[in-house]
Amino acid sequence: MIVTALKQSSPGRFLVEFDGAEALRSTLDAVTDARLFVGMELSDEAFEELKRASSKALDRQKALELLSRRPYSRKELRDKLLLRGIDEQSADECVAWLAERGFLDDGEYAGAVARHYSAKGYGAGRVKSELRRRGIERDQADETLAALPDNTEKLDVFISRRLKDPNDRDSVRKISAALFRRGYSWEEIRAALRRFNSNIEED
Asked: What is the pLDDT of residues 151-176, one digit of tens each?
């Protein structure tokens, strides 16, 4: 078959038209790599190879476009690509390709997520939950949590701003429950209350 037209459909993307065959969506990289030109004749084998290369290049472009909008973990990006209609094998290849080139780094991403939630005053439990929800592996999550700064001061500030009477059992319980929801352990909460000269009853 013969290439009858090369039309740019958007930045970096092309429509390759043939005589007697359906037009093929492709990319600048795929067109350049195949050294296509109007009037070029392709064998059936060369045409099939161009289809495969174009599909792979388009999938990579989709992945890069997603990453240009916000950071993702490897799992999050893979899931997003699957939702966009990319098959599992191609999604895996895209993720691996991006990771090899430094565009995807679960360690850096986990650190950014953890610092964000820690700075907002959340405890390790909440941070770990967020990391797991975003697809960060357990070992990486544990390593990231170990590198976080101590949140004792934020915990103390939270209590001092809300607990006016250390002997008000109802207030102590409400504040303790709020801190537990924010990801602090009961041991951390009890220690903070002791620093504030208060107590929480053992259940």
From this structure: 888 888 889 888 888 888 898 999 99
Whole-structure pTM value: 0.79
Look at residue 203 and tell me if it is in a domain. Answer: no
Three-state DSSP class for residue 73: coil
Please spell the DSSP secondary structure of 101-137, one letter per residue: TTS--HHHHHHHHHHHHHHTT--HHHHHHHHHHTT--
Please tell me the distance from the alpha carbon of residue 144 to that of residue 136, in angstroms, as a whole number.
Answer: 10
How many angstroms separate the CA atoms of 58 and 64, rounded?
10
pLDDT band at 144 (very low <50, low <70, confident <90, very high): very high
How many Å is the Cα radius of gyration of the chain? Answer: 27
Q: Residue 7 sits in which domain range?
A: 3-100
Bridge partners for 14 per DSSP: 8, 26
- Going by C-beta distance under 8 Å and a sequence separation of 6 or more, which residues neighbour residue 66? 72, 77, 80, 81
Counting the structural domains of the chain, the total is: 3
- Classify residue 202: in a domain, yes or no: no
How many Cβ atoms are within 10 Å of 142's Cβ, its own excluded?
13
CB 32 within 8 A of CB 42: no
